[in-house]
Design brief:
Blueprint lengths: L1 E5 H11 L4 E4 L6 H10 L6 E4 L3 H13 L4 E5 L1 H17 L3 E7 L16 H6 L8 E3 L4 H18 L2 E7 H5 L1 E5 L60 H16 L8 E4 L6 E6 L2 H14 L4 E6 L1 E3 L3 H8 L4 E6 L6 H7 L10 E6 L8 H8 L3
Parallel strand pairs: 2-3, 2-4, 4-5, 5-7, 6-7, 10-11, 10-13, 13-14
Antiparallel strand pairs: 1-8, 6-12, 9-11
Length: 378
């Protein structure tokens, strides 16, 4: 059995299947459809969906709902992510599991509300104060939207951290026929909660990478949530040792698991000296271009990134090995190309692979023909 659907509906389906029971958002193109679908579907599962008075209130509602025991998601676009920034930092500091969908559109500022772009990539990683790591996933098709949204909820709960889905305008608005049997079913990881016998603590100074269970308001513990620097018991502190312990924990709990967070799709071809790295909607054009080029006899390897942050360094390095050139198409002026350039290493022959960015910022998508031309396969 198949259904005609779009990325917004698939993301909503995945969130509900993952146990999401609270959503708050504010209308903004192209994320409004997620808000509308959530307001329609959430009452059917006994959940709550709210349109906040603005973006700042909406993400604030979600943080409060999580701390009261809910599983929450919000969705917005570039201008809204800018307004979310402070509260994303709050969620990092308070270790709040939260899923955020960024339906990217062209910026800066109002930009092009109905225009395709991938311009938020660096902002999603570095747009909050402090510079602490975030998990950012990037779907390339509707089935990815389902799989990665469910994965985002599991990761948010596991790491007690906000997880961002870097979707884009074209992905959430396009319609496609999807076989219901193709939706990737994965177990929903239950939220670890602090038992009554355990003492309240927000992190373990002796094990920075360890994530302690969440203690919800209204439970058996006196819960302290401090968004300033705090000690393991949640009390405000300026003690350098305790501040250092906190900050190292916020980084280590994700950095220590980078290899486990490397979600990529590798399509190697023996003897290939050209690698094409892509993510998001642009990966669809890459797959078509490479299909044509291979049919013409060219040897090409592809790497599709479903994790953008933390950078899947090991997978990228392995794919780069032995390559003479790397093509990186993206709908910005090279925001992720810089990460590939950083990782490009010298092989045994002493040659550094040439990294070629293919960029488009006129509101149109990169076509397979542009990738073929950049690769010299036309």
């Amino acid at each position: 059995m198949r259904e005609l659907t779009d990325g917004s509906q698939v993301i909503v389906r995945a969130a509900l299947d993952a146990g999401c029971n609270f959503f708050a958002g504010y209308p903004i193109t192209p994320a409004t459809s997620i808000l509308l679908y959530m307001m329609r579907e959430m009452p059917r599962v006994g959940g709550i969906a709210i349109q906040g008075e603005d973006e700042i209130a909406s993400i604030g509602f979600c943080i409060g709902a999580v701390m009261a025991g809910a599983k929450a998601m919000t969705a917005t676009s570039g201008p809204g992510i800018s307004l979310y920034s402070e509260n994303i930092g709050l969620a990092i500091m308070a270790e709040v599991p939260l899923v955020i969908v960024d339906c990217q559109r062209m910026g800066p500022a109002t930009g092009g509300a109905t225009t395709e772009a991938q311009g938020d990539i660096q902002f999603l990683r570095w747009g909050t104060s402090g510079g602490y790591p975030l998990i950012v996933l990037a779907p390339a098709n509707l089935l990815d939207c389902y799989r990665l949204t469910r994965q985002a909820f599991n990761l948010a709960e596991r790491f007690r951290a906000p997880v961002i889905i870097a979707a884009d305008k074209e992905l959430v608005t396009m319609n496609a026929s999807v076989a219901l049997a193709d939706y990737a079913v994965m177990p929903v990881e239950p939220r670890p909660t602090l038992s009554p016998e355990q003492p309240f603590a927000v992190f373990d100074p002796a094990d920075p990478a360890r994530v302690l269970p969440l203690a919800a308001y209204g439970g058996p513990h006196l819960v302290r949530v401090m968004t300033s620097s705090h000690d393991a018991a949640g009390y405000l502190t300026k003690n350098p040792t305790k501040v250092d312990q906190l900050n190292r924990h916020l980084a280590a709990k994700i950095d220590a698991h980078c290899r486990e967070l490397e979600f990529v799709l590798t399509d190697p071809q023996e003897g290939a000296k050209t690698l094409v790295i892509s993510y998001g909607i642009t990966a669809r054009a890459v797959h078509e271009a490479v299909r044509r080029a291979r049919h013409a006899g060219h040897r090409i390897t592809t790497l599709t990134l479903h994790t953008l942050w933390p950078v899947p360094e090991e997978a990228i390095r392995q794919a780069l090995h032995g390559m003479r050139r790397v093509l990186v198409p993206e709908l910005n002026l090279g925001q992720y190309t810089r990460e590939i350039e950083r990782l490009a290493c010298t092989d045994a022959g002493g040659a550094r692979p040439e990294v070629i960015g293919i960029h488009r910022v006129d509101g149109e998508m990169i076509a397979p023909e542009e990738i073929l031309a950049a690769g010299g396969w036309t």
